[in-house]
Design brief:
213 residues; mainly alpha; 9 helices; binds protoporphyrin IX containing FE
Length: 213
């Protein structure tokens, strides 16, 4: 979730963009991450979230959280392939947006669906495996969100900070399995997200081996 820590081997051959270009791209990334929330709020206010708006809201927030986690994982390969190391600084923004969507996802489930009945939430965590896995993924995300500032990178040391952020390689499969377990009929969407995760991990393994060679 950090923007300042570079990925190994990502070096620029391009001219540094101007401050204005930089801010413009940053604004666009921010808008793209924020747009699904605005779209959901708009649909909600217009009563356009279908027959079961609460379920739709919970699901859409969850799916956007997962998509942004995957986008965050795709930034390093994209920066390497496009030889654009400045892309790396968007990892923190995208990661924090993913976390925010997942907080809202959890909040809409606990608040809107369970009316803050924490006893029921605890029962769900114990009895419904998809909730257990979702909660596990959420708990693991917390240290990543908390340590996403430059101050934490300095305090922990870059190597330890990077090792902590390997948790993301556990969080995404937990999120995907959470999704897989809860769908009843069409398993294709979670399988597609799982395949994307495998591709992104495969690239990392290949890249590491190639650099070692
Ligand atoms: C990293 C953490 C998480 C991710 C990535 C995630 C992702 C998702 C996704 C993708 C869906 C399905 C969306 C769809 O059907 O289109 C979903 C549904 C759901 N999630 Fe999560 N989730 C996470 C954490 C949690 C947590 C912590 C809870 C609650 C404790 C939770 C409760 C639910 C519920 C209740 C549903 C809807 C189930 C239904 O409609 O039957 N999720 N989540």
């Amino acid at each position: 979730m950090d923007q300042s820590v570079s990925a190994p081997g990502v070096a620029s051959r391009r001219k540094r963009p101007s401050k204005l270009q930089d801010n413009l791209v940053y604004g666009l990334v921010w808008l793209a991450c924020f747009a699904p929330l605005v779209w959901l709020a708009w649909k909600g206010f217009n009563g356009d979230l279908g027959a079961n708006p609460i379920e739709k809201l919970i699901r859409q927030l969850g799916v956007w959280g997962l998509r942004l986690l995957l986008v965050g994982l795709a930034i390093t390969p994209a920066a390497r392939i496009l030889k654009a190391p400045r892309l790396l600084r968007f990892r923190r923004t995208v990661g924090l947006f993913a976390f925010s969507y997942i907080v809202l996802h959890l909040f809409s489930y606990v608040g809107v669906d369970l009316f803050f009945d924490f006893g029921q939430l605890w029962k769900d965590i114990l009895k419904r495996p998809f909730i257990t896995l979702g909660m596990g993924a959420f708990v693991l995300l917390i240290p990543l969100a908390v340590t996403s500032t430059n101050g934490w990178v300095v305090r922990m040391g870059r190597a330890a900070w990077q090792r902590l952020h390997w948790l993301i390689y556990l969080i995404v499969p937990l999120g995907v399995t959470h999704y897989y377990l809860l769908v009843k009929a069409d398993h294709r969407p979670p399988v597609i997200y799982a395949a994307l995760f495998v591709v992104l991990m495969g690239w990392r393994v290949w890249d590491r081996l190639a650099r070692r060679a």
